[in-house]
Amino acid sequence: xxxxxxxxxxxxxxxxxxxxxxxxxxxxxxxxxxxxxxxxxxxxxxxxxxxxxxxxxxxxxxxxxxxxxxxxxxxxxxxxxxxxxxxxxxxxxxxxxxxxxxxxxxxxxxxxxxxxxxxxxxxxxxxxxxxxxxxxxxxxxxxxxxxxxxxxxxxxxxxxxxxxxxxxxxxxxxxxxxxxxxxxxxxxxxxxxxxxxxxxxxxxxxxxxxxxxxxxxxxxxxxxxxxxxxxxxxxxxxxxxxxxxxxxxxxxxxxxxxxxxxxxxxxxxxxxxxxxxxxxxxxxxxxxxxxxxxxxxxxxxxxxxxxxxxxxxxxxxxxxxxxxxxxxxxxxxxxxxxxxxxxxxxxxxxxxxxxxxxxxxxxxxxxx
Length: 368
Fold this sequence. Notes:
The chain is of the alpha+beta class. The protein has a domain at 2-162 and 224-269 and 321-351. It has helices spanning 125-137, 144-149, 231-237, 265-287, 345-367; strands at residues 2-4, 10-12, 27-29, 34-36, 43-45, 56-57, 73-78, 84-88, 104-106, 117-118, 151-152, 156-191, 194-224, 246-247, 257-259, 292-321, 324-331, 337-339. Mean pLDDT is 82; it is low at 1-14.
């Protein structure tokens, strides 16, 4: 069964969007921000919307069946790194985009909660590969043979899952408050064997305890829902410009995959509460008058909790060098690059020897 949109574009039940010109499957094109047919080049714009009406009730998450990803998605699991990828039902995965392993199996697991927002890819496949070449050639300690003979595995466009949380918080607290005061004290000091009296102002702290209530609303606490990409690599390509979040549309997924979240909605909120707690502590310490304010106890109620599932774009690949695999990622929005690479023992040794020679020459010059 097929249906037609307003532009008479054929949409299959599997959600692969047919080209109205030649009938081929179209793919999202980061350069035009629309759909493009890889066979005939026909382009179709995507009307981006920014309604952002995707705040879902956290306490009703188990009952929000209408917000589950549709049945036209299936989940592939990697037997090597454990990553779970969500792809259209008609797509066949033959390798893991996160570690390069071919140990891929289709699972019966549902794709979970459908994303409400995403940042569409703005960096193309060709641009991502060009950035890799520029990146690897710019690392002095990478082996020269790698720069000349590296083999980049197939690079994949993947959307990484994140949660965002909103909550109104109401906290009861007890704080220790310290206020400075000064007293005049006289003490004896000895100089050259002689004693003399010194009078000075010494700062003291007078402590007391206070209790009270504190309220704060937290908006869009961002929690990464993935464990597959090395945190240090991902941190180097951040930040994403979240002001560009766009309402999720299936067209943006065409030709790309999304990682299924490995951090559950409940686990994510636990991490979000840690961030909120630190914000509450900071807010209390700012609101209480005193030279020193220390929160001794804190009890917080979380109300009106809502969440969003969002997707952020990266290009991810790996390259082989001397039978080892090194991961490489590109921010699919900004083009920032990060990756691991082997170090040339010869270059490091040469640098150390050169430094030692310079130190020895400087020593001879000074000693003469």
